[in-house]
Design goal:
Number of domains of chain B: 1
Structural class of chain B: alpha+beta
Number of strands of chain A: 9
Strand content of chain B: 25-35%
CATH superfamily of chain B: Beta-grasp domain
Largest sheet of chain B: 5 strands, mixed
Oligomer: heterotetramer
Radius of gyration of chain A: 15 Å
Helix content of chain A: 25-40%
CATH class of chain A: Alpha Beta
CATH class of chain B: Alpha Beta
CATH topology of chain A: Aldehyde Oxidoreductase, domain 3
Number of helices of chain B: 2
Strand content of chain A: 35-45%
Radius of gyration of chain B: 12 Å
Structural class of chain A: alpha+beta
CATH architecture of chain A: Alpha-Beta Complex
Largest sheet of chain A: 5 strands, antiparallel
Order of helices and strands of chain A: EHEEEHEEEHEE
CATH architecture of chain B: Roll
Number of domains of chain A: 1
Chain lengths: 138, 80, 138, 80
């Protein structure tokens, strides 16, 4: 099963976990990306995420299909949040179940690394004295 | 060639709008459009990278555009 | 923070996650070990886990301390269940938060690999026609 | 030397009980005790491994036992 979602509502680790648990799975690995309170020592007030949604769903689905192929994943769930997030809010949850646990770790790490490279989602850090689009400039 | 240009993230700030229609006689490919955008909005040169998507896929510079295409400007992504 | 528990009650991924989430964390990784429905093609009815509890807690605490040192983990939570578990029940949850996500993956994988080697906990697979202590014999 | 021997998992099945008191004159170290256990319960030889713990720590074979120690037999672990 592959489940890809972009949501304006808060994400839920339990819901994501329940999507992937399976009687055939030997390992379930979850990556949960949360909002940090500072960037290079500068205090972050909040983050604003936006997505080019149809393409973001398409790119995340590609990641899930690749994982299903390469690591024989049983289930892959990728949920990404958009809108305004405060510190410690969850931006992304990736849950993967595989027959053997080593594969789940590798697949989950591949998923978050690739998501950060290819999926058209952007975040803007809002500081007390300004804001900046993350990673936009060298 | 008539194109609809959409922009997200910092690209929207640079273009001062999320969507605009352009009629560009010299533009044939995504590479041509990139050059046009950099000429028109020099701030694109300062980005770490910027890509163009057509029909929800990243396109190389030699991708030939069709009249009426929607082209989406993808500045450096930062999800997760 | 380090939290190590051995519990007879069902484990909860949300509770474990909430223990490790932190405003300074760039990555949270959870490993969730669940009961598979078969072993080498043989149908498993249930599993029975037992622990030498004081030493199991001590060995899991060693793992958590090592992770805190080596991967600068912010929080480590290891919860292991004992008693009778049915298919898809959670046997173990390991949750780790680190400043950078790569470390959370490595640390979590180290934790489950080491737990399976050193922590005095045993499981017995119960089949329709018998039972076997897992990994006891070559 | 008086020892309390505790056993978990398959070791408990082999010894037919979770705990037993022994008074062993020839045993000085954990290595001696291992040999005694293998002699008395040959099924220990068939295990993938078995370790002894004293004071909640794994002990090498040269660990010297004290009168009254509780020794815990640790057959191959299989948690997780």
């Amino acid at each position: 099963m592959i489940d890809i979602q972009i949501k304006a509502d808060p994400l839920d680790v339990e819901i994501s976990y329940r999507q992937v648990v399976d009687a055939a799975a030997g390992g379930n690995v979850q990556f949960i990306g949360t909002v940090r309170d500072q960037t290079k020592g500068k205090k972050v007030m909040r983050l604003e995420f936006e997505a080019y949604e149809p393409m973001a769903i398409k790119e995340m689905t590609k990641i899930a299909h690749y994982i299903t192929e390469k690591w024989s994943a049983i289930h892959v769930s990728i949920h990404h949040r958009v809108g305004t997030l405060k510190i410690e809010d969850i931006a992304v949850i990736i849950s993967i179940s595989t027959p053997h646990r080593q594969a789940a770790f590798e697949a989950c790490q591949y998923a978050i690394d690739t998501l950060k490279e290819t999926v058209p989602i952007w975040k803007k850090e809002v500081f007390e004295d300004g804001e900046v689009w993350v990673a936009a400039h060298p | 060639m008539k194109l609809r240009i959409s922009a997200y993230g910092i690209a929207r700030d640079i273009m001062n709008g999320s969507s605009t229609d352009m009629d560009l006689t010299e533009v044939k490919s995504t590479g041509d459009l990139k050059n046009y955008l950099i000429d028109t909005y020099p701030a694109f040169k300062d980005l770490l990278s910027f890509s163009l998507a057509v029909h929800e896929e990243y396109r190389e510079d030699d991708y030939l555009l069709n009249d009426g295409d929607e082209v989406v400007i993808i500045p450096p992504v930062s999800g997760g």
